[in-house]
Amino acid sequence: MVVDLVLSHQHKKIALFVLFLAIAVVMSVIEDIFVVILAAQATINLRIILLIFAISIPFAAFSELVVDKIYIPILGRKLELFLEFLIFGIIIGIIEDLLAILVATSSPITLKTIGIITLIAIPFAILSELIVDRMDLIPPGDNPKK
Q: Would the keyword Transmembrane turn up in this protein's UniProt record (predicted)?
């Protein structure tokens, strides 16, 4: 491919990171829009979208830089993936969604809100696992997890 000829190995790694980050941010923004509409019952406007976008970037970067690089050989690959999905996919997703509601809408956080957020966070965590983390864009020699 032309991309292979033009980009060095380091540039490919940076391009892949940016691609994964962009996908993670887009998925996070979509999730947060659902949360704001369903849990906070707010009307979406440009201000809310910009705030959600600003909140999503650090969480997506944290996920790409830290979570996906965790490698614990003692656990075994399947248990490691499950814990990554559970802890970071769902719990961090819930934390981000709570923050999005607080910052974007100033709505109070109730048990009902947390329940709605959890119901939204679980399918998005599954979707994220299936789409972002399973994309085979990194050559096998470059990915320590494979």
A: yes
41: left (phi over 0), alpha (psi -120 to 50) or beta: left
What distance in Å separates the CA atoms of residue 63 and residue 66, rounded to the nearest whole number?
6
Structure tokens given for 29 = 């923004």
Q: Report d(CA 17, CA 23) in Å as an integer.
A: 10
- Non-local (6+) Cβ contacts of 122 within 8 A are 90
Nearest to 139 by CA among 6, 13, 3: 13
- Does 101 score more than 60 pLDDT? yes
Residue 63 one-letter amino acid: S
CB 142 within 8 A of CB 13: yes
The pTM of this model reads 0.73
